[in-house]
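RETRY 2/3 - previous attempt timed out on the joint model. Re-submitting the same 294-residue input unchanged.
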Amino acid sequence: MDMRIKEAVELFQEVLFYGTERVIRSVDNPLWEEFSPEQMQSLKLIGKEGQITSARLAVLQGVHKSAVSNRTKKLLQKELIQVVQTADRREKLLELTAAGRAVLEESDKILAEYVENLMSEQVDDQEIEQFLKIFRKLSAIMKTDGV
Amino acid sequence: MDMRIKEAVELFQEVLFYGTERVIRSVDNPLWEEFSPEQMQSLKLIGKEGQITSARLAVLQGVHKSAVSNRTKKLLQKELIQVVQTADRREKLLELTAAGRAVLEESDKILAEYVENLMSEQVDDQEIEQFLKIFRKLSAIMKTDGV
DNA sequence: ACTGATAGTTTAGGGGGTAAACTATTGACC
DNA sequence: GGTCAATAGTTTACCCCCTAAACTATCAGT
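RETRY 2/3 succeeded.
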């Protein structure tokens, strides 16, 4: 059991902490150079929720509201999102523009191709099932605890 | 098959791209506040190789040599690593100091406890096997291609 | 009306990264 | 031996990201 923990820790660090970063940096795709991963994540979440407040976006992304404020400013400049005023005038709802939806779709398409390509080449059918199972679990754990 | 790809893409983004970052930020451990993940990765790699050049470290971390230069400067200031001159006077070998080794050990211990705790609580034995299998695969893929 | 709570923005300070210019040193070739 | 291109690292300019704390505006309850 002890050895397995040790290996798990190594793999954890290697894949989750460092591997992903390295991979993101090495991908050369015009979309990913123009928009940062964090900006893409914002688009994704805004798209999923339809309309969303800064405060909620901060919770979902796990960052301070000031970080969100900074990000939304950039997305507004790029005209990928727009602001809708609500009755409570302190609050602003963010939603995607047509351009924002287009970017999001394009990004999803690229990633889908990437993953599909990867899986068909290097991963067999049974492994895909296991991959999905493990990642569903990880996703759930990350949302509640923290790893 | 198409639905599975779609789910895989979602999980990919959620867990690898964003989840890990969020988790790292939310962990409150004095060690992790004092040293960035990148600095810890440097320590880990230097420790693993014993002695290493900046150039090699840059390749292993997948970043430019200027980024490594910046990081090593900080680690030197914190006295976690030291420099050894070689015959080729352009080149510098980096190695851990005793303090560096101590930090690395402490970090591994903390992570091991974390992972162990997580697994015993939320993951059953069979899942651990699957987890290891999938992550070994991911690790291998990340080292060659990029995801 | 007052006052405390809430939503967002701003500022200061510190992480990360790239790309390109620059220093120092080496090694190969004439 | 002298010249010059290649190599290892550093520096600089410019960008992204983050937190913490101060600040503005607005709302809601007493």
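Chain A touches chain B through 56 residues (CB under 8 Å). Closing ticket.
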